[in-house]
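Cross-posting from the modeling subforum.

Setting up a comparison between two proteins and wanted a second pair of eyes on the formatting. Protein 1 (sequence, then structure tokens):
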Amino acid sequence: MSQLMPVLFVISLVSLGVTLTVTPIVRSFALKRKIGDYPSSRKVHIRFIPRLGGVGIISGFVAGLLVAWAYDAATFAHASFSLVGVGVGLLLIVGLGVYDDIKGVGSFGKLTVQFLAASLVISSGLEITHLALPFLEPIPLGIFAFPLTMLWLVGVTNAVNLLDGLDGLAVGVAAIVSAVVFCIGLFTGDALLTFVSVSLFFAGLGFLRYNFNPASIFMGDTGSLFLGFLLACVSLAVVQHPAAEMAQISLLVAVVILAVPIVDTSIAFFRRIKKGMHPLKPDKEHIHHRLMDLGLTHRQTVVAIYAISLFNGVLAFFLVVLDNLYATILLVIVTVFTFLAIRRLGYVEEMVAARKTEPRPIQPLSVARLIDRAFIISGDLFALMVAFLFSYWFRFQSGLVSVEGFVPLEMYIKSPALLALVVLWLLLFVLAGLYEIPWDVSRIDYIFSIAKTVGIGTLVLLVVTMDWGEATMEGRLTMLVYGLGVAIAVTANRMLIVWFERKHEILGFRRRNTIVVGTTDLARDLLEEISRRPALKYNVVGFVDRRPARKSFLRYPILGKPEQIPEIVKKYNVEEVLVATEYTSREEMLDIVARCDGMVPALKVAPQVGEALSGFKTEEIIGHPLIRLHLTNLKSWQRIVKRTFDIAVSLVILIPLLPVWVLVAILIAIDSQGRIFFSQERVGKRGRVFKLYKFRSMIQDAEKETGPVWASVDDKRVTRVGRFIRKLRIDEVPQFINVLKGEMSLVGPRPERPYFVEQLKREVRFYSRRLLVRPGITGWAQVKHRYDRSLEDVKEKIRYDLYYLENMSLRLDLKILLRTVVVAGSGRGTH
């Protein structure tokens, strides 16, 4: 491919130059004819912006291809598919885009032309004929090849079109994708791919000169539809590539390259259906909109999505270069991170919530915090590599231990084992909370946390890698040296980052926007303490008070009431909330805490009000006039273990014992009329309403005449079979389905009906605290108290629930489960 470099350089100059020349001309034409976008509630620009900029991109792209054709016409003539069919399809798409920018076209008209253009491309020979996945033989698609290819072409076209919501976003992502395709073309020796991709890259780069924020011209549907359709065609060429290295993963390469527009469009499609909207109706909830809602600026949002696209592009290239096992591990990692990112943006919770449920406020994003995390993770990766190289030197080159079975370093690098080892360390760091260490933790505690985590990891590696038949002292000693190297390297890296950031007051040690809850003498004393100690790094932006009768306090504005905390946090990008009230009602304190849950990274309280926080874990901060409040007593790894255990036990109960549950269902059907299963709305974590399932134990429509009432002793509504299954708690078995769905846990406070929850909130103190955790099938209250028969019973059970919340642990969960078995076997507490 080296002989192509001169012509590639010429193509680059021509594509860039033509685009830079044509775009201003098109802009002047669009301004004169008033062809452009006016501001609206769905758009982020605030003035009229001309469209048709896509003509500039197309001109530069075509000019570059003409140069390539003049240099090497044979490459175009010997393409594995008909370039005429693809060209005509692109002309249809360009015509559609131009007409839509000038006159406007409805959804049906757009789809009709897109289907026609896609049919031409498929007939030209570009088609997904096989489904290729790692470690599997290619699966022929047969009659499904045409509809799948059609879906791909039309889907990617519209995905890029929908991505065009911010200045420079869609064309920048398209340029990154084309750069990745260019690298793949060079690696595989495909001249046609390199010609097309380099022309598109520099045409897009030239247009960014006028389209990056603040944009002076939009590319409109002329550009976005063209880019989407062309990238879809190019990705099909990648899928059909004959190179042996890509035979097993070609479709995954195409998906990963275009992951950003594909994920964004998929989320939008299902989100709109969930909300009862038309799936093609535009809204302002795309990923770029959500990032801006979370506090990123226009440019920060675009650059962030560029970074994600570039990361996906690098991964896609590695999928081509590396072997299947290595590529699969990388793919799994990115899939997990994609899910976590979607969840962080609030889409996952939005999807599973009931349609009428108010969306939960989402904690704003901080660019400084993101960069800080990126530095720390990058530093950890470097430290892990240094530790590995040191242990390799110690084992094979130092002469300190005997060398038997020498292994070249290249074998470790080429093997996915090294990647798996790094991933396991990073996963352990995440579970141990090493990426969530607060800025005000002492460096001694910081170092101790690292040492403890690395010690546990080293012990696990010693056990897992132990060859119990032929264990050698040299191998065990090398593993200990490796663990010591990891501890020293990671600690040194992090202490260097902490020192640098603290010295310059940047990133992790920047001054944080802070609000103070309360306008009392306690708050006055706290503010004086903050003023005297600038090392606390609080940038107080204002106060929050339950009775904001005045507009300011100590020269700081009063921003609103406690119930407005989510809006205040979002508006001022607040990162710390300091609670300095003197409320006599603990329920008021719990309400403040609940409103801060998930909205801010740090919530701290003055020591005088710490006793009002029953049910929460607190942590004193050395040298700090506050106490840190943890909204959950479980660490990350404990929450994962708890959830994994929930799923495992539920599967064991539901699947192997299925014949028993079928027999129970038959007995219920024989005993009385009505449905076998009983479903009822209950209130779960954070007030989310869900359907709880049970085996029906009462007569049909038991509450038709009375409405919601408490069960009672010798309740006449209970059937004969119902009395038996209640005694053994068998009626609760279908709730394991709720556990699998993530609506419940095995252990936690029992969920109540919305009718009773509203009543209990008014009459039972601390009841809202129960809604901060996932409800359970059983709980401490269920094994220590009798069945609910009245409001007084519920009030009594609150004490047990608060005890559980204060002492929540995996050990206590196991204790409750064992006691539940005993209680269920004895039939105690049922009626």
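Protein 2 (same layout):
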Amino acid sequence: MKGNNNLFRIMFLGIGLLLFLVATPLTAEARITKIEILSAAPELTYPSYQRITGKAYGEVNPSDPLNVEIQDIEFAPRNARGNVEYVTDFLILKPNDPSLGSGILLYEAPNRGSRIMEYVSFEKFDSNWKSDNFLKKRGHTLVWSGWQGDLTPGGGRMRIIVPVATNIGTPITGRLRSEFIVNAPVSTIALSGGAVPAATATHIAYETISVNKVVSGGTLTRRIKEGDPRIPVPDADWKFADCTTGTTFAAAPPSTRNVCINGGFQTNYIYELLYTAKDPLVLGLGFAATRDLISFLRYSFQDDFGNANPLAGTVNHAIMHGLSQGGRFVRSYLDLGFNEDEQGNMAFDVAWPHIASGRLPLNVRFGMPGRGGGSQHEDHLYPAMESPFTWMPINDPVAKRKGWILKRSKKTNTCPKIIQTVSSSEYWQGRMSLNTTNAHGRHDVGLPGFVRIYHFAGTQHVLPVFTGAANYCQQPQNPNNYMGSMRALLVAVEDWVSKDVKPPDNMIATLRRGTLVPSDQESIGWPSIPGVKYTGLVNELTLLDHGPDFDDRFESGIMDEPTEVVDGRKYTVLVPIVDEDGNEVDGIRSVTLQAPLGTYTGWNLRKVGFAEDELCGLVGTFVPFKKTAAERVAAGDPRLSLEERYSTQQGYVDAVTAAAQSLVAAGLLLPDDAQSAINAAIANPILP
């Protein structure tokens, strides 16, 4: 039946294409004009799949209402048809036999150009990084494409090439602010950020108009904590230069893309550079390119040159997935109304932002979407959390406006089903509570029936294997893994989109249940654990003023720098309550959290020499329980020991088994993953 359906779909698309070409003037149509296949070969790790790499050439009509809000599109060069062009990389993994496929296209918005969906969200890897190929076994077609126009070539990054905005050939300039934080001393940093020179930077640096600091208006300051006063670095001690190529600071050659400091950048400081930059990229085209590529893969038969759509007739449904930065891209993509293509079709049926509670300042002149999402210590004043935050209409008395993320897509009937999944780090660093409460944290905001939110209780942003050593944090990282529930939720989403079977109910902390509270120790119920400093520090949010030419509502436009904090206009950020062990009680509680070996949090603190006691990135904490009651008493630890909890190893295995079975019954863990958790408990004894 699948084969017949696909054949019918191919015939239908072919007829539809002919009618469309007759009826539509090509000069006005924004679309993928050419698909260039660079390679097509069997996927080495899964031979029943094909791996296709290529480039998609596209163009958009800058006058179309769907595109006019792309920042600086009016200053982009146009082709003979009056359209603005781009070129984006893409990667497709698809079944060799379409009749054996699921008919579902699963798209990941790459994180800084990298495909990480398999590693973080869905696929298990052994010690040799061999995948269990979970997504391919389910028959999904997997697609990635470049959307971030400020990435440098190399490193396997998927890029999109977008034009530079110019004013009738004259360079466009503007004030730019860039922050630098290093985890080891370094002499030179690219203006785009990251402790590397321009030659090895992963992001294109906007050039200064001059290496002369007077001409460029260059100033460099440093401070230890985000809220500390900015202390100027003396002019004699820094310059626009590359100190990695000179023998001394004085001999360092000038560079319009690097900044160098005498004695090097140190780990204890936030460095802030202000300068006048030139040649902004039209980054907002990344939204349109994603829309148009998926629309082409779903609805077109061939490109303008007769090259076949490699997925023609095989896609019944499309899911958009993005995690962290990619997840914020998903939220902005929806907020800006890009799920409607220029023929009125819906690009994606489901949107799944993962570990992302804010939006993304991509549609910004001199935008730097690779920077952090407004964390407590890093990039705190960079746009990422401007309201609206919610999936339902709500009045925001702080920003003094009403809105919701889905307003545009709802108006055009192109609103997809939504699944949002978050770790505990999103509450502490990402102000996640504002996604589900009003501005002052006084009541819960309801969710539409087509929206689901799931909080993976007691987890950090991503597992330690992906964050590195994090040797600047006070405590060990949190190993609590949410992937088992992600896999189960994907199966639920498959049924939701293809059979209209509703997934499990929302699982989040709420005011109504009393599980969403202020972060002070008394309110949260945090136990006093020896050796663990608890400050209750959370990433608060105060209204920011980015200037009159910046549209905060849509996180678009031209920013004034430096950003100003609007005094007295503050939001209330809340966090999930914890039990006597310090473990969160609401949300999806994994097998690890139901049969714990310690305390698992979504926060950690920076240690001495690294801005001590600031929040430590997106890293959580793991504090193991003592093994015996005697050890616990000697240490003054209020939490029960492993011996007191489980008595024996079999008692621990029984607790793991009960937790795994309860999650399977709730549709939050697949049977095979439940058995894997039980097997791991048996194979790794914690007690005699």
